[in-house]
Design goal:
This protein is of the alpha+beta class. It has eleven helices and 13 strands. The protein is globular and about 60 Å long. The structure holds adenosine-5'-diphosphate and magnesium ion.
Length: 327
C-alpha cells in the first residue's frame, strides 16, 4: 500500500454538508468557512513515541488521545471545534494499526462534529501532529490573562489518575487490576472538556487546560494575569478518582504519592479556570449544563506566586514542579 492509498483508505471522508469545511482531503489546501463574524481558534499538539506514549499502546486509544489533547486546547479557549489536520510520520504501513488508530480518531471527531480536512504522511519514527481549528465569537475566547485578585480558582473533573497509571505502568508502584484499568482510561483516553469550555464563555475570567500538572499549569495563568493564588492541597488531593482505593486500606496509603499525582502529575486534560465570586451560580450552571463536575480549589490573590495550604490553612511546601521537556 502506497502513501496515497493509505490516505484514501484511512484518512479520507467526504466533508459534512452541515460542517465548516468547504473542501477536505485531496487538494493542495482545505477550505474552511467559519460562521460569519467568528474568530478562528487554532492549536497544534504533537505526540512522539517513547516521549508521550509507549510503543505498544492500543492504537485506537492513541487515535483518540492524539485528537483529544488538541480538542482540549479548544475547550480551554471556549472554542467550538470545526476541523483538524493530521501530520503523521510512520515507520511502516501497518494496516491493523492504521485501522485502530483511525477508528479511535474518527469516533472522537464525530462526537464533536470535527472534520479531518488534510494533513501530511511521511515515513519516519512514529510521530503524530494534529492541528485543530475552532471558532469563537470576538472577545469571548477564554484567555490565560484574565484572572483578577478575589476570583475563585476551579478545576473540572478528576486529577492525578493519569499519573497514577503511568507510575504503575513504569513499575514504580503496583495497583490492583481494576484500579489500574480505571486510572489507565484517564491516561490513554482523556475527555476533552469542550462542552464545559463553551458554557464558561462570559463566566470564567481565565482558563487553560491541564496537560503538564496543576501547579505548573496554574502558574501560567498567574504569570499571564500578573496575579498570585492560594490552592487548598487537601481539597485538590481528594480529586484523584483512585483516592477511595488508596485510602480504603486495600492499598498502601501514600499521601505524598497522591499529592504528587494530583499537583504535578500531568496528562489530566481537565480545565483550570477562574471566575469572580459573583459568578458562583453561573459556574454551577455551566457545570450542570455540560455534565462536568467542577471543584473550587482556591482563590486568586494580588501577591504574585502560588501558595499551597492544607485544609487548616497551614502552608505546604511547594515541590510540585511540572513536567518540562527541556527542564
Ligand atoms: P502535497 O503534495 O500538496 O503536500 P500530499 O501529497 O502530502 O499533498 O497530500 C495529498 C492530500 O492528502 C492533501 O489534500 C493532504 O492534505 C492530504 N493528506 C495527506 N496526509 C494526510 C493525513 N494523514 N490525513 C489527512 N489528510 C492527509
Ligand atoms: Mg505534502
Amino acid at each position: 500500500m502506497g502513501e496515497f492509498d493509505l490516505i484514501a483508505r484511512y484518512f479520507t471522508r467526504p466533508v459534512r454538508p452541515d460542517g465548516a469545511a468547504v473542501l477536505g482531503v485531496g487538494d493542495d489546501c482545505a477550505l474552511l468557512a467559519p460562521a460569519p463574524g467568528m474568530q478562528l481558534a487554532i492549536s497544534s499538539d504533537m505526540l512522539v513515541e517513547g516521549r508521550h506514549f509507549f510503543a505498544d499502546v492500543d492504537p485506537e486509544a492513541l487515535g483518540h488521545k492524539a485528537l483529544a489533547v488538541n480538542l482540549s486546547d479548544l475547550a480551554a479557549c471556549g472554542a467550538r471545534p470545526l476541523a483538524f489536520t493530521l501530520a503523521l510520520s510512520l515507520p511502516r504501513v501497518d494496516e491493523p494499526w492504521l485501522a485502530g488508530f483511525s477508528r479511535g480518531m474518527w469516533k472522537l471527531a464525530d462526537a464533536h462534529g470535527c472534520e479531518l480536512v488534510g494533513g501530511d504522511t511521511t515515513q519516519g519514527p512514529l510521530n503524530i501532529c494534529i492541528t485543530v481549528f475552532g471558532e469563537v465569537p470576538p472577545r469571548q475566547a477564554l484567555l490565560r490573562s484574565g484572572a483578577r485578585p478575589g476570583d475563585d480558582l476551579y478545576v473540572s473533573g478528576t486529577l492525578g489518575d493519569a499519573r497514577l497509571a503511568l507510575e504503575a505502568l513504569l513499575g514504580h508502584i503496583t495497583l490492583p487490576a481494576d484500579v489500574l484499568a480505571r486510572a489507565r482510561q484517564r491516561l490513554e483516553r482523556p475527555t476533552p472538556r469542550v462542552a464545559l469550555g463553551l458554557q464558561l464563555r462570559g463566566v470564567a475570567s481565565s482558563a487553560m487546560d491541564l496537560s503538564d500538572g496543576l501547579v505548573g499549569d496554574v502558574s501560567h495563568i498567574l504569570k499571564a494575569s500578573g496575579v498570585g493564588a492560594v490552592i487548598d492541597v487537601d481539597v485538590t488531593t481528594n480529586l484523584i478518582a483512585a483516592s477511595a482505593y488508596l485510602s480504603s486500606g486495600r492499598g498502601h496509603f501514600d499521601a505524598e504519592l497522591m499529592r504528587r499525582c494530583v499537583l504535578s502529575g500531568g496528562d489530566d486534560y481537565e480545565l483550570a479556570f477562574t471566575a469572580p465570586p459573583a459568578q458562583r451560580g453561573a459556574v454551577a450552571a455551566a457545570a450542570a449544563a455540560s455534565g462536568t463536575a467542577v471543584t473550587r480549589i482556591g482563590s486568586v490573590v494580588a501577591e504574585p506566586g502560588l501558595r499551597l495550604v492544607d485544609g487548616q490553612g497551614q502552608p505546604v511546601e511547594n515541590r510540585y514542579a511540572s513536567f518540562d521537556h527541556f527542564g
